[in-house]
């Protein structure tokens, strides 16, 4: 043989393959490229012809074959060195694959896929194709000049080379196998080793990336699972293993439904979702994020967080962004002034309650110290350094209660702050919320409150997210809630939820022994420590009057009285007597032993009844004259209205005679008993 002919339909391929052959066989034989546009005028008796592919045998070649052409059909492969750039393309990239002919174009696509570059979408193009997408990336097999437009990126993976089996065939046919065998095999061995090294490097790189991913996953404070669309778990981390009390082998490669059967969001692959689940005794907040990849990249990442961790984190954020400085100077049990045994007992109980997180209901009249107790309990609890947030239901307009307590998202209603607002429950997170005058809450709101107490989470108005809250609830009321339940004004289920730890504040009249010590305390407070003993400030009669008074406004009223006395005392510059007392105490003291009937009917009515009794009946005008004579402030019309009331109570009756109005038997009894 004198020549090695490389025959291909296109010139480029013929030349490229000829170069490949020349590199190997050039020392021993002349290598020449031929393409279809050439005259095939070589001497077939002294030539070995390598056909670039089986499909190129056309009539012209068939004639040569029939004449005894010595030929080899080449098998061709893509050189691994050239596909690196292709491997770097993002998954699901779309490329125009350009080659010289339909057959070779499809072959190249098939070979690239076989080589593992199967995550790219190939659009075939070869001369003669009319419709093709103008993609940014074009991949060509040594034929960049055939590209029908200017692509942004052209990757030329070079002409597919003759594979080693074809080359060995050629060597054998040329009688060069002895000479070239070793070279050939070592050349290809080198190539293969190069390829293996590259694969190895890639594998090493993959391993490093994998390790890095594991390190990152294991450093996360949250437990994570990355689950393929078919439910197979492919990534997890240490926190997750610890949470499940399981090892990697029990989780990786397993189906999520087997690992976490009670996770309902694993059924929903359409949207990112949140859910609360209980795993291994932990309440976990689970978030799922759908990964919108392609093919094998699709899946869901689940993160699991212990709800107390979320609370802690949210709390830190809240503290950092809190609207107002949090008051820490709350009352403590030491601030409660008392001597009465009933108070001693109450404080003992309240201190025990302070050690718990259970809901407390404080009932008692106005001004008895309900908020003082609530603050003292908070201060003595483990929440002392956290906020104490008071909410007064009697003072808050009904339409604002929900937004004040639960907050709202930006733009949820007219008048809302654009950025939204945290509610008082969120403000109180970690601490105590004091729901004062709870008996005044509307029935609708009671229902909402009941849900919040049960679920321990709130949702802002206009919001979709449930926010876990960790607050201690102390409620207070001056109303008799049982009576309110009977009247249909208060929900019994809420009452039982609130009344877990009950405290009943005694009124001041039930602990009159505290009047002195409290008076001293308030006087000392207003006088800035100058007056510490009321006995040096007011006389005995005045002190007795303070004891005799009922103090319907309780300690708050006593405090006001002491402030009043201190101001009067500073003016007078002498020891105060009974006349200096506030009018409400004074009135009570002048008539200390008012009869019950007098209390009920009032002084004016009793006066009228007495006059009627003494005069054996008289008219309205006469009563009016008598009132004027006795300096009693009663107008004729007031007398008329009082007589009407007396009539409706069955105390008097009108007569036709000049006696006008006379007492009934009942009226007689009332008048005489008022004189006892
Ligand atoms: N035992 C006490 N020692 C000292 N101060 C007291 C005591 N009890 C109540 N006070 C004071 O009396 C005032 C009223 O108390 P507080 O506001 O706690 O009563 P309350 O029952 O919550 O009243 P309301 O029902 O009207 O809200 C406060 O200034 C409080 O400091």
Biggest sheet, strands in spatial order? 12-11-15-14-13
Structural class: alpha/beta
Ligands and ions found: adenosine-5'-triphosphate
Number of spatially distinct domains: 6
Distance between the termini: 153 Å
Shape: rod-shaped
Gyration radius (Cα, Å) is 50 Å
Estimate the strand proportion: 15-25%
Q: Which architecture of the largest domain would the CATH scheme give at its second level?
A: 3-Layer(aba) Sandwich
The beta-strand count equals 26
Number of helices: 26
The CATH H-level homologous superfamily of the largest domain? P-loop containing nucleotide triphosphate hydrolases
Proportion of residues in helical segments: 40-55%
Outline of this structure?
Keywords: ATP-binding, DNA-binding, Nucleotide-binding, Transcription, Transcription regulation. With 676 residues, the protein is of the alpha/beta class. 42% of the residues lie in helices and 17% in strands.
Which SSEs are present, and which pair or pack?
Elements: E1 3-8, H1 11-25, E2 30-35, E3 47-51, H2 59-66, E4 70-73, E5 76-77, H3 84-87, E6 94-98, H4 102-114, E7 121-125, E8 137-140, E9 153-156, E10 161-162, H5 164-173, H6 177-219, E11 223-228, E12 233-236, H7 238-244, H8 248-251, H9 256-259, E13 273-279, E14 282-291, E15 299-306, H10 307-320, H11 341-354, E16 360-363, H12 370-380, E17 388-392, H13 398-406, E18 407-408, E19 421-422, H14 424-427, E20 432-436, H15 443-455, E21 457-459, E22 466-468, E23 472-477, H16 481-486, H17 492-498, E24 501-504, H18 515-526, H19 540-548, H20 554-572, H21 583-590, H22 596-601, H23 603-614, H24 620-629, H25 636-648, E25 652-654, E26 661-663, H26 665-674
Parallel strand pairs: 1-2, 1-3, 3-4, 6-7, 6-8, 8-9, 16-23, 16-24, 17-20, 20-23
Antiparallel strand pairs: 5-10, 11-12, 11-15, 13-14, 14-15, 18-19, 21-22, 25-26
The chain binds adenosine-5'-triphosphate (ATP).
């Amino acid at each position: 043989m004198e020549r090695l002919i490389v025959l291909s339909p296109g010139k480029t391929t013929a030349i490229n393959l000829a170069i490949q052959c020349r590199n190997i066989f050039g020392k021993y034989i002349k290598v020449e490229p031929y393409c279809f546009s050439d005259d095939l005028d070589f001497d077939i008796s002294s030539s070995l012809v390598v056909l670039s592919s089986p499909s190129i045998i056309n009539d012209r070649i068939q004639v040569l074959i029939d004449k005894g052409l010595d030929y080899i059909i080449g098998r061709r492969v893509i050189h691994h060195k050239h596909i690196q750039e292709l491997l770097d393309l993002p998954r699901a990239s779309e490329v125009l694959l350009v080659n010289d002919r339909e057959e070779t174009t499809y072959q190249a696509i098939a070979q690239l896929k076989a080589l593992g570059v199967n995550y790219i979408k190939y659009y075939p193009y070869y001369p003669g194709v009319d419709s093709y997408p103008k993609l940014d990336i074009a991949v060509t097999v040594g034929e960049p000049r055939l590209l029908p437009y200017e692509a942004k990126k052209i990757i030329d993976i070079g002409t597919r080379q003759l594979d080693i089996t074809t080359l060995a065939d050629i060597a054998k046919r040329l009688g060069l196998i002895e000479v070239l065998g070793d070279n050939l095999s070592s050349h290809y061995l080198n190539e293969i080793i190069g390829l293996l090294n590259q694969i190895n490097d890639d594998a090493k790189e993959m391993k490093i990336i994998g390790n890095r991913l594991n390190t990152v996953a294991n450093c996360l404070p949250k437990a994570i699972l990355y689950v393929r669309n078919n439910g197979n778990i492919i990534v997890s981390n240490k926190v997750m293993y610890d949470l499940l009390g399981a090892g990697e082998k029990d989780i990786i490669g397993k189906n999520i439904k087997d690992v976490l059967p009670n996770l309902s969001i694993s059924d929903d692959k359409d949207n990112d979702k949140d859910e609360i689940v209980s795993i291994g005794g932990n309440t976990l907040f689970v978030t799922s994020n759908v990964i919108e990849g392609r093919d094998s990249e699709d899946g869901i990442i689940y993160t699991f967080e212990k709800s107390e961790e979320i609370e802690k984190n949210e709390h830190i954020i809240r503290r950092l962004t809190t609207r107002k400085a949090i008051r820490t100077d709350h009352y403590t049990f030491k601030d409660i002034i008392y001597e009465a045994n009933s108070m001693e007992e109450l404080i003992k109980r309240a201190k025990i309650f302070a050690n718990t997180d259970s809901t407390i209901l404080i009932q008692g009249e106005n001004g008895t110290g309900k908020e003082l107790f609530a603050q003292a309990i908070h201060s003595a609890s483990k929440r002392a350094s956290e906020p104490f947030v008071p909410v007064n239901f009697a003072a808050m307009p009904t339409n604002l209660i929900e937004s004040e307590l639960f907050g709202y998202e930006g733009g949820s209603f007219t008048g809302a702050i654009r950025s939204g607002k945290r509610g008082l429950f969120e403000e109180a997170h970690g601490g105590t919320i004091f729901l004062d005058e709870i008996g005044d809450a509307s029935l609708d709101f009671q229902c909402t409150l009941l849900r919040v107490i049960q679920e321990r989470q709130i949702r802002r108005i206009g919001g979709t997210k449930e926010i876990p809250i960790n607050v201690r609830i102390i409620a207070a009321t001056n109303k008799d809630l049982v009576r309110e339940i009977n009247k249909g004004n208060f929900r019994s289920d809420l009452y039982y939820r609130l009344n877990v730890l009950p405290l009943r504040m005694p009124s001041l009249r039930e602990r009159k022994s505290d009047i002195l010590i409290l008076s001293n305390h308030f006087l000392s407070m207003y006088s800035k420590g100058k007056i510490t003993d009321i006995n040096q400030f007011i006389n005995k009669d005045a002190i007795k009057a303070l004891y005799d008074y009922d103090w319907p406004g309780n300690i708050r009223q006593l405090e006001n009285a002491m402030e009043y006395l201190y101001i009067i005392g500073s003016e007078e510059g002498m020891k105060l007597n009974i006349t200096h007392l506030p009018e409400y105490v004074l009135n009570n003291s002048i008539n200390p032993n008012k009869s019950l009937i007098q209390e009920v009917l009032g002084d004016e009515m009793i006066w009228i009844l007495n006059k009627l009794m003494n005069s054996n009946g008289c008219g309205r005008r006469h009563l009016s004259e008598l009132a004027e004579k006795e300096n009693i402030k009663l107008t004729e019309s007031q007398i008329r209205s009082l007589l009407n009331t007396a009539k409706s109570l069955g105390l008097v009756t009108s007569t036709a005679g000049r006696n006008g109005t006379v007492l009934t038997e009942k009226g007689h009894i009332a008048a005489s008993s008022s004189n006892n």
